[in-house]
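A brief tutorial aside. Many learners find it easier to grasp structure tokens once they have seen a single protein encoded end to end. The record that follows does exactly this for FGGY family carbohydrate kinase. Read the sequence first, then the structure, and try to relate runs of similar tokens to stretches of the chain.
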Amino acid sequence: MYVGIDVGTSMVKAAAFDSTGRELAIESRSVGLTLHGGVVEQDMEEVYAAVVDVLDSLTAQVPEPVELAGLTGQGDGVWLVDAQGRPVRAAASWMDGRAHELVDRWLADGTFETVFRRTGSAMFPGCPGPLLAWLESHEPKALDAAAAALYCKDMVFHRLTGAGPTTDVSDASMPFLDPRTRSYDNRVVELLGLTHRRGLLAPVSDPVATAPALGEGLAAGTRLANGPYDLPACALGAGVTSPGDGLLIVGTCLASLVATTDLDLTGEPAGLYISTDRPGHWLRAMPAMVGTAALDWVLSTTGVRHEEVDGLLADTPPGAHGVRVLPYFAPSGERAPFVEPRLRAELTGVSLESTRADLVRATCEGIGYAARHCLAAAGLTGTLAVCGGGTRSPAWMRLLADVLGRPLRVVEGEVGARGAVLAAAERYGEPLDAEAWTRPTAVVEPDAARAAYYAEGYEEHLTRLTAARARARA
């Protein structure tokens, strides 16, 4: 039995697989987010307790011993811990927006672009650079008390194994890692005013770190590997490794990834290059801030249940009777395929005749247009896989295929956990059949007429977005 652990933003999951990649059991626990005034934080003890709980429940279901386990989780944010791996303060989430003024300043003075040209990382308020700089200005005592500024999965690995602070090249990619040398760029640290905090950056393990579990959640001695984080783990779990092939993750974050061997640091600074376990291979990532979270907000606001979505999508035609949604709901604005910290969602074309179905379809279409924008910017030329919670809606998948104008290789199940196991197996030399583990569960073809309609709608979306970005800067 192989176990993958995925420490998500709102849900902690663990999945057990046999040697062929068949899912044997899945356990999950929700974890909370605290949101107030643009600040988005998580309780580290709650997150870690959820990890132990799902592992205890999972391993109790399947009597076979765990051969090895792989760990993945949400990226970005700042998870400050002391020398024992205990929290110094609440974790600042990747969704946090408190550092937007710093990003605004760096955008204006050229620091933002300089960092991108050196690392391929377009900073946004919820990534470690701005957050650490904000903490330095407002909570320096928290940094004084910390032994390390970790990413989410690194905190969990630290606690599960007792190993020293460590991260991997994927998490370190935003924003301090030089993708050519696969080590921290000290000039970037200096540019962000953090040279005297350089010691808080966890050592980069390349390849990913391994250590035996201490006995919480996993039996003592169980082999555990740390990383990569959730976006590249999903790419591995979906079989997206050939240059030009892409993955769309329809989750809380709408993430578009394209495998590439071309490191191009020119063009508009946006997204990031995620270093992978293979030197010279990257994932060009355009992780838009809000995916299913945008639809969740609309559903909760209109009183619609998730199980009603497919029926509502069938109740209104493409174009949603003129209702349009720019789905930029995150408190920290947008980070891909452009950075606009002050951008906010817009809902237009609504009248007293508009229905809940119109609002739901318009939101799904808006998310689809945002995905198309991201995939184009990331350089998609090959096949496209799709995974995430959104795949549970067949109607939404058909809509997405139409909006994107291409077939979707749907990969269901716990794709991030699956990728974490494959990464762990590679690290430990376990011979797993990656092709069998990543086989799609379905292929959704676009309808030619609807795809043509949405191609025009996409151009309209870009026009509305240009105007919205101008208003955000005014």
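Self-check: The radius of gyration is 21 Å. If you spotted this yourself, you are ready for the next section.
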